[in-house]
Specification:
With 457 residues, the chain is mainly alpha-helical. The protein has helices spanning 2-21, 36-52, 84-89, 93-108, 115-138, 142-181, 187-202, 209-212, 220-231, 243-260, 263-269, 277-289, 293-306, 311-323, 327-340, 345-357, 364-377, 382-395, 398-411, 415-428, 434-456; strands at residues 32-33, 61-65, 72-74, 79-83. It is globular.
């Protein structure tokens, strides 16, 4: 009897595992990084690859995640999530292009949509072995039943891992083709896989063939061997990386490092004798974090002297001045950065914030214009929605202030508050107006998300 109870307990655990395995990892609870320069760079990297894959320019969106691990992934739709640790680990732009090509292979292969196929096969094996084990147990063979169940569980996991490895190999092959069709060398792709292989060696991860059976990805050594055969005969193998793209990557990498790392670490990695744009970028952020305003401005002014019309240098100067309390001085560089980028939503949001921070009612019209343009081009921008709500609030336009707040709260997962604000806005806005219709849409969206959240709980 005790043996049967033990068997039933293990059966329940196993069935719970079946329920868990059929759900792919959700891209929720992530700390998203927004930076106009880095997003533009990554978009310019992926667009030629997307075109090679038969997708239109801009069809694939890149999302930068604040996570130090070396990773990139696709989580539904046509979005590639790139960890900051991946950018920090890459030495050259071509390595990032190789990773993006691989992830694009997952998108075009429909691998996220097919996840349930692999999980479903594993679940079927598990359930069949469970039913067989139940029959053995009822016949009095408790120990034999446990053996059957364990064998079934191992077979199910093996089936799922084999499915995952097949998808990875498929993405590798597709990525190699997209690099070739876009005229981009596969050298960076190989270099990055070699980095992963060295990482595995450092962690004492076995590279023997029998170890591959228990992995979701093929062994890095095997992937390198397969891909090298394709890359070295490709016409693009000896094509050098676009020097402008490489320079942009080095800037973005140093900028990201300076923003995320502790200032002391940044100043050690980029000492004063390094006078190139990447080093000055990193030091400017380090000094800004330490509230050493004059030194931060000295670095950014040196950058602007290198290129007076670089919008991202101007954006950084405006950011440092704004966050240091020099609001009026921040307006000219932010206005010029907004103009030079054609009103990039993130930079325009900073300009709108600065205009509001002047506490001059005469600046509210300009603030509203730039912020409405920002949310029009980048609807999922909670910071811009918040600032727009502040503009409406200062004008006494409470219904539109509440609508802007509802937009912001939906994106931040505060569905109850979003619903309350959207309903309040709808009741006070002119019936039939575009804002009234939008308030209805936001209320409907918030209600649906709230119900889904309650169902999960």
């Amino acid at each position: 009897m005790a043996l049967l109870k033990s068997f039933i307990g293990r059966l329940l655990v196993m069935l719970a595992a079946c329920a868990m395995i059929v759900q792919p990892a959700a891209a929720q609870g992530m700390n998203i990084l927004r930076d106009a320069e880095t997003e533009t760079l990554l978009q310019d990297m992926v667009d030629p690859l997307a075109e090679a894959a038969g997708l239109r320019e801009g069809a694939v969106e890149i999302v930068l995640v604040n996570n130090g691990s070396i990773n990139a992934f696709v989580a539904g739709g046509q979005r590639i999530f790139v960890h900051s640790g991946l950018i920090n680990a890459a030495d050259h732009a071509n390595e990032i292009e190789g990773v993006l090509a691989h992830e694009l292979g997952h998108i075009t292969g429909g691998h996220i949509n097919r996840f349930s196929e692999g999980a479903g096969n594993a679940t079927k094996i598990t359930l069949l072995s469970t039913l067989l084990a139940v029959g053995v147990a009822l016949a009095g063979g408790g120990e034999a039943a446990m053996g059957v169940m364990a064998a079934g569980q191992q077979a199910a996991m093996g089936s799922f891992l084999a499915f995952s490895r097949t998808q990875e190999a498929s993405a590798d092959a597709a990525g190699a083709q997209y690099l070739s069709d876009a005229g981009i060398s596969g050298r960076g792709s190989l270099a990055f896989f070699e980095k992963l292989q060295n990482y595995e060696f450092r962690r004492n991860i076995s590279q023997t063939q029998d170890r591959e059976y228990s992995r979701t990805h093929p062994l890095s050594g095997n992937r390198i061997a397969r891909l090298r055969e394709e890359y070295v005969v490709d016409p693009a193998w000896d094509t050098p990386t676009d020097p402008e793209m490489e320079a942009r990557f080095q800037r973005a990498k140093a900028k990201l490092f300076g923003y995320l790392a502790k200032p002391e670490r940044t100043l050690t990695a980029f000492p004063d004798y390094m006078t190139g744009a990447p080093a000055r970028y990193a030091r400017a952020y380090a000094y800004h974090q330490q509230a050493r305003v004059d030194e931060a401005l000295e670095e950014v002014n040196a950058l602007i002297e290198m290129d007076p019309l670089d919008p991202y240098f101007l954006e950084l100067k405006g950011q440092i001045l704004l966050e240091s309390g020099h609001v009026e001085e921040a307006l000219p560089p932010l206005r010029e950065a907004t103009r030079l980028t054609g009103s990039n939503p993130l930079i325009a949001s900073s300009l709108g914030h600065a205009l509001i921070a002047t506490e001059d009612a005469g600046n509210l019209d300009e603030a509203e214009a730039v912020l409405r343009a920002a949310v029009g081009r980048d609807h999922e921008n909670p910071f811009a929605w918040y600032q727009l709500g502040v503009v409406y609030g200062q004008r006494g336009d409470i219904p539109r202030a509440r609508l802007a707040s509802a937009e912001q709260q939906v994106m931040q997962g505060n569905y109850s508050s979003a619903l309350v604000n959207a309903q309040a806005a709808e009741s006070a806005l002119p019936t039939g107006s575009s804002d009234w219709l939008r308030a209805q849409d936001v209320a409907l969206q918030a209600r649906g998300l709230l119900e889904r959240q309650r169902d999960r709980n």
